[in-house]
Amino acid sequence: MPKINVLDSLLASKIAAGEVIDRPASVVKELMENSIDAGASSIGVFLAEGGKRVIKITDNGEGISREDAPLAFMRHATSKISKEEDLDAVLTMGFRGEALASVASISRVTLKTRRRMETEGTLVSIEGGAPPLVSGDGCPEGTLIEVKDLFFNTPARLKFLRSSDSEYGRALEIFKRLALINPKTRFKIQHGSGRPVETAPGTLRDRIFDLFGIAEKDIIEVNAPFVEGYIGAPGDGYPTSKWLLIYVNKRVVRDKSINRAVMDGYGQMLPSGRFPFAIIDVKIPPEDVDINIHPTKSEVRFRNQSFIYDAVKLAVRGAIGSLSAPGRQPTIQNRADYGYNRQFSPFSGPRLAEESASTGYSPGFSEPLPPPLPFLRDEGDDVKNPEFLGLEIVGQLWGEFLIAESHANGGEYYVIDQHGAAERAAFEKLKKRFYGEGIRRQLLLLPERIETTPDEKDAILASVGYLDRMGFEIIPFGPSLNGGGESFLIKSVPEVLKSGRCDRLIGELSEEISNVGGSLKIEDKIEGALMRIACHSVIRGPRQLTKEEGAALLKELARIDFASHCPHGRPVVKKYSRKDIESAFKR
Ligand SMILES: Nc1ncnc2c1ncn2[C@@H]1O[C@H](COP(=O)(O)OP(=O)(O)O)[C@@H](O)[C@H]1O
Ligand SMILES: [Mg+2]
Questions:
Q1: Of 100, 112, 122, 124, best ligand 1 pocket probe by most atoms within 8 Å of the beta carbon
Q2: Which residue's alpha carbon is nearest to atom 27 within ligand 1?
Q3: Fold of domain 5-199
Q4: Which atom of ligand 1 is nearest to the CA of 61?
Q5: Ligand 1 centroid from CA 79, angstroms
Q6: Ligand 1: which residue has its CA nearest to atom 11?
């Protein structure tokens, strides 16, 4: 079965042509990315004269078939996408089908490759973009690509290359960035007869130590919705932003706004003019980011830049904030709230045990912790609307509306929709948790089983990562009893949901979030879903409130940011002045 598709010209022109290769480091990047895409568990890089004379990459990945090997060097030939819609869902590093073609047109390339099931491998050699020569070869499983004499036929380009050491330095930098974000893969790089840099499979934390020599106690884990990684503990920082390493779905990118968000997340914890060490991987559904705006794929465009900025800043701030809460033990529960990865491989085995095992940087922090800085205070304590704190409840109407009196501004009274206010307060809290430490969940003693139609199943699968973060742990449970669909088990629900079955709610939420073909931005969908949960979390229908309950509600109202966007948008509070009353009586 051929694996490589030649893209049609329309799509080919959509993929803007451009310069992919400008120096040895860009060859190293493209070839290493190909090896990563090929599922290699071991990748070796060798350079001679900074890569100007030789760049050799070997991997033990899936290899290329005899039939496909020459095709791989054609422009716009890729096995990774085949139609336009695929551009919205790229999970591989490559997709433009340009790199090998570009490299082959400006150097002398040898490819040796063998797929596991093939007895004989394939050798392809190609020089300056001339037609490839193909023959059999007894090579090991995997792929070796050797690029010699880069830019031999483009002297203008050649002139711009720097010294061997300087070119190697750049290649090493990209090597480290790729090796860092793929810690389960073994990597090795060697320059000439120099000492190789080698790193064994391990965790991201191990890799940070291997490649940068930064110890565990000097880094803080970042594990928040949409954002994972490590940041340097507050300290002196570095004079340049060189170690601010940003990734989007493990793709190496440059993004000024994310850099800014990291810096702003540190706030005053970093001396001004200094930069932190940070590895930030933004995890976002592929359709919410355009990775095809630059030939080298190192710049991306988010559907909503400010959302990403906020998520990163909050994540960094939260990670630093966790330092000043020494009593806080990471629990399985709050870790499990962050299972966003499931969006990509929703049901990849039990994660709880694995996650709890890798939890907990707290043992590393035995030294006394610095006192919390003012900006790290729990923002939940901020009073946004102090006037509610001065209200006195004077009564209740029909068990639904609170009446409260104020002596401010010559006398005012408030009518408060109990249900609306409670719902709004719950919504604000959920939103804060969703973007902060995660929504608290409670395990169900008896998992609830739900049956779905094929459409509902798709909706659940598409939103399972978000639902997980909202506190619903959902796992598939085989074909549906009523035929055609699928059944799922709900193992946990958000803590705020007191009781009751939640099959309908999950149906509504997944439809809202997956909302195929809808035009809503993802954060609007999330807000809509959180509003639904909030609505289900508060008691509906008339009810007499006790004095304490009334006072608690007023306190909640004082904290709500009424300026913030609320999907339902119904008023919660109405205020009347003494004058309104007086004029009604023609006083
Ligand atoms: N190391 C490798 N192992 C297996 N297949 C590879 C490797 N390198 C390249 N290929 C194949 O060659 C094709 C073309 O590679 P490339 O020009 O980099 O384009 P892209 O990565 O954008 O698909 C890939 O789609 C893949 O099928
Ligand atoms: Mg590629």
A1: 100
A2: 79
A3: Heat Shock Protein 90 (3.30.565)
A4: 3
A5: 7
A6: 72
Q: What is the pLDDT of residue 381?
A: 55
Does the domain formed by 214-364 have CATH 3.40.50.970? no
Report the nearest-CA residue for atom 12 of ligand 1: 72
- Report the CATH superfamily, name and number, of domain 386-573: MutL, C-terminal domain, regulatory subdomain (3.30.1370.100)
Instruction: Return the pLDDT at 307.
Output: 84
Q: CATH 3.30.230.10 occupies which residues in the chain?
A: 214-364
Contacts 24+ apart (CB under 8 A), 269-274: 269/234, 269/320, 269/373, 270/234, 270/237, 271/236, 271/237, 273/239, 274/236, 274/237, 274/238, 274/239
Separation of CA 285 and ligand 1 centre (Å)? 23
Query: Closest ligand 1 atom, CA of 101?
Result: 17
Could you tell me the two tokens for 332?
């399985």
Domain with CATH 3.30.1370.100 in the chain: 386-573
Q: From ligand 2's centre to the CA of 284, what distance in Å?
A: 21
Measure the CA–CA gap between 496 and 399, rounded to whole angstroms: 22
Instruction: Measure 34 CA to ligand 1 centroid, in angstroms.
Output: 5
Q: What is the pLDDT of residue 368?
A: 31
Residue nearest atom 25 in ligand 1 by C-alpha distance? 78
Sign of CA dihedral 424, 425, 426, 430: positive
Q: Chain-centre distance of CA 397, in angstroms?
A: 47
Contacts with 156 (C-beta within 8 Å, 6 or more apart), sequence order: none
Would you state the pLDDT for residue 362?
27
Atom 19 of ligand 1, nearest CA residue:
97
Residue 185 φ/ψ, nearest 5 degrees: -100, 140
CATH 3.30.565.10 domain locations along the chain: 5-199
Q: What is the DSSP letter of 501?
A: -
pLDDT given at position 1? 66
φ/ψ of residue 112, rounded to 5? -125, 130
Instruction: Calculate how far, in angstroms, residue 339's C-alpha sits from the geometric centre of ligand 2.
Output: 29
**115 CA → ligand 2 middle, Å:** 18
Q: What is the mean pLDDT of each run of 10 residues along the chain (587 residues)?
A: 60 41 93 96 97 98 94 86 80 85 90 94 90 91 96 85 94 96 97 94 94 90 91 87 93 93 88 91 89 80 85 87 50 29 28 30 29 35 76 84 84 85 84 80 84 79 78 80 75 79 79 66 75 79 79 83 61 84 86
pLDDT at 221: 93
* Residue 203: per-residue pLDDT: 95
Residue nearest to atom 21 of ligand 1 (CA): 94
As for ligand 1, residues whose beta carbon falls within 6 Å of it are 3-4, 30, 34-35, 38, 59, 61-64, 72, 77-80, 94-101, 143
φ, ψ for residue 531, nearest 5 deg: -65, -40
Distance in angstroms (rounded) separating the CA atoms of residues 380 and 363? 28
